TrEMBL record:
Compartments in which it is found: Cell membrane
Record's protein name: ABC transporter permease subunit
Membrane topology listed for this record: Multi-pass membrane protein
Cellular-component GO terms for this entry: plasma membrane
């Protein structure tokens, strides 16, 4: 009779697995500490300050002050700029990504485009503002070339970099690359069989996009637009360096309330920040939900 093999000791193996798993957590600890110090704790501090008076007592007066006409107007201007830059960035970025992924462009263009998009989507703040001032300012390079070569005075025809559309165009520098980075994987997920099946059944190219491609891409498109909206809604360094106080958007009004010499009211600044957190939080939440829905379609 053959001997029955007995199972070997499993406790040391289990202990080793547990030890390895516990050591794996050390890899993400720097990220968790970073997020706690620079994201979670400041957010909790701002939310708590929005519901406190200067003496630290609970109050809703700061939230009620958000409904002042000047503050509501600042929110409205910020929403319009964010929406305009999000829609334009999404449209242009989608066209670029579709041309590279689905169009007839050479394959070697994709790698430089994605590399540039990764860099440009993170290029913001004071350097971006100065770059546009040197390019499209009153004495900028493009303004100079248009005037001296083509005889076209850009500012005489109503353009102003320190205005609504000037700030919107500036935001497009990082909105378009961000759209390219996010929508490219969704376009890669469109299967060739879907297009071939639509063409075999007699659908035209426009019908394929209208009835097959866009319904599948719609969650990803809408979610990305919301992400672009949130991305520009909270930008302050670029807007402040470019327009100063000439354009009253929420981040600039918030800065004036916390750090200003005339309008200083830190508690109202906390309430303004709380309102921005609510708006961007809703936008990012809907984006995450839409992205998860799109990924289920593209699997």
């Amino acid at each position: 009779m053959s001997a029955i093999s007995e199972p070997g000791p499993t406790l040391p193996v289990a202990a080793a697995e547990k030890k390895r798993l516990s050591l794996d957590w050390l890899g993400v600890m720097p990220f968790m500490i970073f997020a706690l110090l620079f994201l979670v704790l400041p957010t909790v501090f701002l939310v708590a300050g929005a519901f406190q008076d200067p003496q630290g007592k609970l109050t809703f007066a700061n939230i009620a002050n958000l409904f002042q006409p000047s503050i509501l107007n600042a929110y409205w201007i910020s929403i319009k700029i964010s929406l305009a830059s999000a829609l334009l960035g999404a449209g242009i970025g989608f066209a670029i990504a579709a041309a590279v992924v689905l169009g007839g462009l050479p394959a070697w263009i994709r790698a430089p485009l994605m590399t540039f998009s990764g860099v440009a989507s993170n290029f913001a703040g004071v350097p971006l503002a100065y770059a546009f001032l040197f390019t499209l300012g009153r004495t900028g390079l493009v303004t100079y070339l248009l005037l001296n070569i083509f005889g076209f005075n850009l500012y005489a025809h109503g353009f102003n970099l320190l205005s609504f559309w000037g700030l919107t165009i500036t935001y497009l520098y990082f909105q378009i690359p961000l759209m390219v980075l996010i929508i490219t994987p969704a376009l890669d997920g469109l299967k060739r069989e879907w297009r071939e099946a639509a063409l075999i059944l007699g659908a035209t190219k426009n019908q394929y996009w209208r009835m097959v491609a866009f319904p599948i891409l719609w969650p990803a498109l809408l979610g990305t637009i919301l992400l672009l909206f949130a991305n520009s809604f909270g930008a302050i360094a670029t807007a402040y360096a470019l327009t100063g106080s000439s354009l009253s958007i929420v981040p600039i009004v918030l800065y004036a309330q916390i750090r200003g010499d005339v309008l200083q009211d830190p508690q109202l600044g906390y309430a303004l920040a709380f309102g921005m957190i609510v708006i961007t939080g809703i936008s990012n939440g809907v984006y995450i939900w839409m992205r998860a829905r799109s990924e289920r379609w593209l699997k």
